[in-house]
Design the sequence.
C-alpha cells in the first residue's frame, strides 16, 4: 500500500476507535464492556502496525536505512494476516492432534475409551448479533471499511 492509503487506513482505524470508545459508555453488562475493550485493544494494535509501516515507508523514501525495504515487506505481510479476536481464539494442529485456546497450552484432542480412540476438537461458535449488541453494526463497518477481519466467537 502507498503512504496515502496507509494514512487513510490509520485515520479510519482511529475514527473507529473513537466510535467504539463512545459506544462503550452505553454498555449494560460486563460482557459487553469486555467485548468493547478487546475491540479497542485490537484497533490499537492495528494502529500501531500501520504507524510502523508508515515510518518504514518514510525510511525507504529518504534512504536512511538500508534494511527498511526488507522490514517494510515483512510488516506488510504481517499486517495482511492481521485479525482481531474479540473473545476466543482456537488453533488446531491436525498433524499432532492437538489444540489450544487463546494461546494457552496445547491439549491433546484424542479421547480413548473401551470403544476405541476418537479425536475431539472443540469448535469455535460465532456470537449472534444479540450477544454483540450495539457492537454488531460497528464491527461490520470496520471490516467493510478497513478489510481487517474481526472474529467474535467462543470455544465450545
Sequence:
Amino acid at each position: 500500500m502507498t503512504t496515502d492509503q496507509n494514512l487513510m487506513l490509520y485515520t479510519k482505524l482511529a475514527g473507529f476507535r473513537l466510535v467504539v470508545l463512545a459506544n462503550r459508555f452505553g454498555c449494560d453488562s460486563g460482557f459487553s464492556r469486555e467485548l468493547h475493550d478487546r475491540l479497542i485493544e485490537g484497533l490499537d494494535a492495528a494502529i500501531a502496525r500501520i504507524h510502523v509501516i508508515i515510518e518504514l515507508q518514510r525510511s525507504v523514501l529518504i534512504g536512511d536505512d538500508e534494511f527498511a525495504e526488507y522490514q517494510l515487506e515483512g510488516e506488510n505481510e504481517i499486517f495482511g494476516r492481521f485479525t482481531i479476536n474479540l473473545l476466543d481464539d482456537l488453533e488446531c494442529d491436525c498433524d499432532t492432534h492437538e489444540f489450544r485456546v487463546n494461546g494457552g497450552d496445547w491439549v491433546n484432542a484424542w479421547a480413548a475409551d473401551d470403544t476405541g480412540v476418537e479425536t475431539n476438537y472443540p469448535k469455535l461458535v460465532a456470537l449472534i448479533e444479540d450477544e454483540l449488541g450495539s457492537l454488531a453494526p460497528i464491527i461490520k463497518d470496520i471490516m467493510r471499511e478497513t478489510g481487517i477481519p474481526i472474529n467474535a466467537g467462543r470455544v465450545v
Observations:
- The longest strand covers residues 90-93.
- DSSP finds five helices and nine strands in the chain.
- The CA atoms of residues 47 and 109 lie 36 Å apart.
